[in-house]
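Hi W., the flavin-adenine dinucleotide complex you wanted:
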Amino acid sequence: MSYDVIIIGGSYAGLQAAMTLGRALRNVLVIDSGKPCNRNTPYSHNFLTQDGETPHAVAAKARTQAERYPTVNFLTGKVVGAEKGETLFSASTDAGELFEAKKLLFTTGIADVMPAIPGFAHCWGISVIHCPYCHGYEMHSKPTGIIGNGDAGFEYAKMISNWSRDLTLFTNGAATFTHIQAQKLLANGIKLVETGIEQIIHTNGYIEQLVAGDNYKLDALYCRPVFKQHCSVPQTILECNITDDGYIKVDDFNRTSVAGVYAAGDCISPLRSVSTAVFSGTLAGSFINRELIDEDF
Ligand SMILES: Cc1cc2nc3c(=O)[nH]c(=O)nc-3n(C[C@H](O)[C@H](O)[C@H](O)COP(=O)(O)OP(=O)(O)OC[C@H]3O[C@@H](n4cnc5c(N)ncnc54)[C@H](O)[C@@H]3O)c2cc1C
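Structure:
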């Protein structure tokens, strides 16, 4: 069967795009492999009407609402290939299924690469967190660590100081701050530890101690791990352009560098939150529909 749009990735951005396109009477297939980036975190915050819900509950409600539109279809699977034909795109899954559509939308998110620190991955999303707007309120005023160094580490520590003044900055190697930055950190009472991090001791993902030479008692640890695109198909198969920071490059209308291929959500932007993913999905759905109208009218 041929669709108007195949959406690859059925989490927040993809579900929102599916709803927008379903409400525009478009035949849509959403293919999702069921691994959103926030699946480890017990509660999702800072999205109006859903504050404090589990990530799964937010997505499940969204899916139920998107499923009400009869032209929106869902498939569980992983897209491993895509091709641009004369008039249609095709997308193939790891189960060998092949589908066709006029447009493709990638809402496949990003995958955080866990550093090789024992305990880190177990605590990720629970007490090792990346975003103060998502989890900072719950951890405010508590003994807090930050992994960071150089300009980015300095800015990160400055931001987190809004939520806690009991801060230790772990550079995990020799500090590379400028003299002025080091003075500012000191003046703001931020302790500096350069010794490499050996491990995080935790109970069920909740940090007890961070070991870096000495033992540090922490409730929260902020870190922005490196990431990769969750799905390599746009870059490696369709040859969509990627930004220097590793995001799929799109224009103001969510169009990638390959005509007919769109992208939205975390895979295109560092503005990482459920609300921005939803916003991005709405835009992408509307822009795709507008292009389909233009082509038919
Ligand atoms: C630990 C953690 C906690 C967070 N907490 C919060 C919070 O409290 N509040 C908040 O607002 N934001 C939070 N965020 C950010 C938020 O989760 C993301 O911004 C949001 O999930 C992005 O939505 P998305 O749809 O773009 O991508 P994702 O939610 O990551 O979903 C991508 C989807 O695409 C699928 N996919 C990938 N590749 C393929 C493929 N080849 N074929 C088929 N499907 C594929 C995946 O399985 C997944 O279902 C958190 C993030 C993390 C990592």
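The first strand starts at residue 2 and ends at 8.

W.
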